[in-house]
Amino acid sequence: MIKVCKFGGSSVANAKQFQKIKNIVNSEDARKIIVASALGKADKNDHKVTDLLYLCLAHKKYGMSYEDILQVIKDKHQNVINELKISFDLDKEIAGIHDLLENKKNSDEIISRGEYLSSKLLALYLDALFVDAKDVICFDYDGNLNIEKTKEKFLPYLENNKKIVVPGFYGSLPNGIIKTMTRGGSDITGSLLANIVDASVYENWTDVSGVYVADPKVIKDPKQVAIITYAELREMSYMGANVLHEESILPVKEKNIPINIRNTNSPDDKGTMIVSTAEDDPNDLAITGVTGKKDFEVISVAKLNSASELGFLSKALNIFDNYGIPIVLMTTGIDSFSLVIDKKELKNNIYELANEIKIKLNAEDVSVYDNLSLICVVGRGMRSRKGMAGKIFSLLGENNINIKTIAQGADEISIIVGIDESDFNKAITLIYEGFIK
Ligand code: ASP
Q1: Is the pLDDT of residue 281 over 90?
Q2: What residue spans define the domains of the chain?
Q3: Alpha-helix residue ranges (DSSP H) falling in 85-212
């Protein structure tokens, strides 16, 4: 039984965090594969090493000195080395980064040095085997990860009795050139390795004890979700709950490997289990989470009998396609329909678009409403429990919140309501208190 443990930036922010990691990984033999992010922020005023590396690159690009920034990067690592008494030639590594910057070499390689250094130090401190991601995490030339090739390269290292530390966030192209992933990509490295070794669980160690039922910026000390399905997590993530890199789900989901979100600062907490399927336990909370997202617009189109006019909707959708605007939600009625779109997809062309709809569809009225927020109540239990939608609507209605649009997915794991932006926090609080407390 092998567990893959990924430690995010805050879990490797300083020497104290390295010590916590040592306790965590040494407490179980199964915790054999460790993936590390670059050194992250130890406190609010600190900086992530990856951000600092990007900053060095930007300074170099504009002909400005980056020496001070490189010094901050060096100091951060030097502190870890000193406090943990690791023997490591940091000067040589920093000179290497300097050289890469000066010679305008592959910028991905420069950005990857954060993970490279944190993992080197962690491997030394844990007395583990360091396996460079550039030797095992394989990309094809089109930028896609090649699971088969990665497997072939990585599996032989498992023979080694030691624990293995692999830097997250990067790998290499077939010609050996280093390529980084998108931000937060260490999650993907961990997930990929979990897939390859058929891990019993993919532990993702961070600074919170799991997925929150609601955003802590809205609800003070919200509860944590014990079990959530991948499908529920997708709904929550789309609506703003940021837990994992989106692309990290597929490799583990494919093999039904659960992801366990854990807290490096509170390792006894069980965290959140993300699984393929879960039965609804009547003792569980009625909902898994409530999230929301602001900044949507609604276009409503009215025309008598539009529901029976062949091709009416497709004409409208075509216009959106031509403008390159995806549709988030659609509600239809006998004489009208409404489309919800994300404001950031609009390029100041909403009225032009509304006008085109009016002309091409010969509509009686096209109106635009631009202050919509979507609130999404997520829960696999909603399928079997009755009165859930009713309860949501009454909670909002009784508290003077006007519901502008409603949608329930066909799989019945979420109910989405559109409300005015000014009611956003109030609506989330009412639903949280109504269902969770
Ligand atoms: N260090 C990278 C970032 O800050 C990757 C990661 O931490 O997952 O995005």
Answers
A1: no
A2: 3-275, 289-435
A3: 90-102, 107-126, 133-136, 147-154, 186-196
Regarding the domain delimited by 3-275, which CATH topology (the fold level of the hierarchy) does it fall under?
Carbamate kinase (3.40.1160)
CATH superfamily of 289-435: VC0802-like (3.30.2130.10)
Cβ-contact 5, 25 below 8 angstroms: yes
**Torsion sign over Cα 317, 318, 323, 326:** positive
| Exposure string for 104-121, b = 16+ CB within 10 A, e = fewer | eeebbbbbbbbbbbbbbb
CA of 330 to the centre of ligand 1 (A): 36
Atom of ligand 1 nearest to the CA of 38: 1
Predicted TM-score (pTM) of this structure: 0.88
Report pLDDT digits (tens) over 292-327.
999 999 999 998 988 888 888 899 999 999 999 999
Helices 424-435 and 388-398 meet at what angle, rounded to 10?
A: 130
User: What separation in Å is there between the alpha carbon of 100 and the centre of ligand 1?
Assistant: 20
Measured CA to CA, the distance from residue 280 to residue 327 in angstroms comes to 31
Hey, which of 11, 54, 169 would you mutate to test ligand 1's pocket, going by the most ligand atoms within 8 Å of its Cβ? Answer: 169
Give the H/E segment covering residue 73.
helix 67-84
Task: Tell me whether residue 432 is exposed, middle or buried, using C-beta atoms within 10 angstroms of its C-beta: 0 to 12, 13 to 18, 19 or more.
Answer: buried
Q: What are 249-261's pLDDT values in tens digits?
A: 999 999 999 999 9
- Taking the C-alpha atoms of residue 363 and residue 429, their distance in angstroms, rounded to an integer, is 39
Average pLDDT over residues 229-249: 86
The yes-or-no verdict on residue 284 having pLDDT over 80 is no
Could you tell me how many helices (H) and strands (E) the chain has, helices first? 14, 16
Share of the chain above pLDDT 90, in %: 81
DSSP string of 254-270, one letter each residue: TTT--EEEEETTSTTS-
The token pair at 285 is 């909370």
